[in-house]
Description:
- By secondary structure, the chain is mainly alpha-helical.
- The protein has a single domain (2-425), classed as Growth Hormone, Chain: A, CATH 1.20.1250.
- Helix content is 77%, strand content 4%.
- The chain is built from 19 helices and 3 strands.
- The chain has a 3-stranded antiparallel β-sheet.
- α15 (301-320) packs antiparallel against α19.
Amino acid sequence: xxxxxxxxxxxxxxxxxxxxxxxxxxxxxxxxxxxxxxxxxxxxxxxxxxxxxxxxxxxxxxxxxxxxxxxxxxxxxxxxxxxxxxxxxxxxxxxxxxxxxxxxxxxxxxxxxxxxxxxxxxxxxxxxxxxxxxxxxxxxxxxxxxxxxxxxxxxxxxxxxxxxxxxxxxxxxxxxxxxxxxxxxxxxxxxxxxxxxxxxxxxxxxxxxxxxxxxxxxxxxxxxxxxxxxxxxxxxxxxxxxxxxxxxxxxxxxxxxxxxxxxxxxxxxxxxxxxxxxxxxxxxxxxxxxxxxxxxxxxxxxxxxxxxxxxxxxxxxxxxxxxxxxxxxxxxxxxxxxxxxxxxxxxxxxxxxxxxxxxxxxxxxxxxxxxxxxxxxxxxxxxxxxxxxxxxxxxxxxxxxxxxxxxxxxxxxxxxxxxxxxxxxx
Length: 426
């Protein structure tokens, strides 16, 4: 039997199934952990989210040291910034498959361990390890990131926008911490960049410990699952996906290359890492406030345009404006990018009728979107190699930003994706 999201069932038999399915969903959601200890679930979500960016943002401030230490060419260094983002997209489609079989909570627990392993491998095994570890870390982050919007939609439906802002804020905090402290940590460890990078396995293991009660309790997802059909034919789903990909491409250019751009403008590696960290830290403000404000209007189109224009102003300022005003532009960039990313995740939740659709839309948006996003850092490295400077990178910023506005105007409409959900009994 099938349930159609966004349309009424045409047969009485389908109506009866819909009632039964919703009753099953209600029973699944009314687990003791969710009702009696929502604070533990929320704490777990925040700690998990904190670990979804350090593996990415910790590399940029020490990229020069890694390249020199391992003898990497500029192209290989560019690949190193691109590979984890590409893996975010390539492995994201595995998330709903694993969740249907094992349950989202169990998958997240296991993948956190894989993330910690990837960080350790990246730091310990030379040239091969830095690429293999980056691949493992990127794949891990891609899988976990897909599952979080569905959990928020399922367990906090009345506060989905606010909770999306909370865990987006945690993502930004984790990115800022790693960007700002990896170089100082390396100095603490006798200027050994490998130990500075490897430190970020510790928070992942801590998140595992806090998440264990969720994995033990589960929410029945491994017993009652849903298969969503028609998503890849839905224009709104593609608009959400392309907005996610284009704004993410700008974000990963910042994570991967902003310190190198600033070093090229005369900053030291420590100063460049602090600017990146400060910019990402500012995202805490807009990542929490932008979804809340955007859900107060009739739709999210105006908010999408505003945050993307702010992002572009910050990017162009960091690239072209006098270095004396750099911190102001970095703050502007952080406010813009915190809003763009938080709205991208919020759109996944708001454009979905229920948690099952949200999980699958999240898989599509992040799978295709991050694969597309990985081309941005690669393009920046290629343009830098061809021109020998950074000025031409502004064209990449402009094209990606305007594209994000175009698709964001479609994704920001107050509609739901039109899909069919099939219940799969295990």
